[in-house]
Amino acid sequence: MRTVTAQDQAFQAAVARIRLVKARPEFDLDEAPAPNRLAPFTLAITADSSGEEDLASGRFVLLHDPDGVDEWEGTFRAVVFIRASLEADLIDDPLLHEVGWSWLTESLTASGCEYLQLGGTITRNAGRSFGTMNERPADGYLEIRASWTPASVNDDVAEQMDRHARAWLRLLDHAAGLQPMPEDVSNVLHSRTRAQR
Question: What Pfam families does the annotation carry (predicted)?
Fold first, then answer.
């Protein structure tokens, strides 16, 4: 029988906190296979639009290496990805990349996250139709890729991991063009959802 180590317990505590996070009705959350080459312990949560309209989709991956990674400056690493359709008035916005990055930093702050080594990329992909397809409106999408090291000055980092999952979901709200919901508003959850907001 495998012995449960303190490192296992730290990861399981972090996973338990993430699973407490509830999803708003516009999104379904589920657990997915996680990339096991990046760290000894991994968890992946996916988000997809629950209705007919494809608002946005994303992924939250938690990595844990009990020995720590120099580049992380810690033992945990949060990695997020979001893809969302762009509204017509945002496709050519010259400040879109900066706005997308501000959504991320504001989401981390609003969720009460402490973090180190934040980095990422904001990508815009847009297309326009010509000739016989000239009447079609311009379309495009935004992709946000980012990672950071969850940190804590006073408390156990694992016990605060729900804040980092909430920050990802706040970012998803922004990218989808939805107003973030107040923390004290609860939602009816979809029965198939395993990880919750």
Answer: DUF3000
Which residues have a Cβ under 8 Å from the Cβ of 92 and sit 6 or more positions away? 126, 138
Contact assessment for residue 23 and residue 47, using Cβ atoms and an 8 Å cutoff: yes
Q: For residues 169-181, b (16+ Cβ closer than 10 Å) or e, as one string?
A: bbbbbbbbeeebb
Count Cβ atoms below 10 Å from residue 147 Cβ, excluding itself: 17
Sign for the pseudo-dihedral over CA of 148, 15, 58, 170: negative
A 10 A CB-CB count for 105 gives 15
User: Which parts of 110-166 are beta strand (E)?
Assistant: 114-127, 139-151
Q: Using alpha carbons, list the distances in angstroms from residue 187 to 89, 147, 160, 196, 197.
A: 30, 28, 22, 10, 9
Per-residue model confidence as pLDDT tens for the chain (197 residues): 334 455 589 999 999 999 999 888 999 999 999 888 999 999 999 999 988 778 899 999 999 999 999 999 999 999 999 999 887 667 777 788 999 999 999 999 999 999 999 999 999 887 666 777 777 766 788 999 999 999 986 668 999 999 999 999 999 999 998 876 665 554 433 333 333 33
> In this structure, are residues 149 and 116 in contact, taking their beta carbons and an 8 Å threshold?
yes
Say how far apart CA 14 and CA 11 lie, in whole Å. 5
Phi, psi (5° rounding) for residue 156?
-65, 125
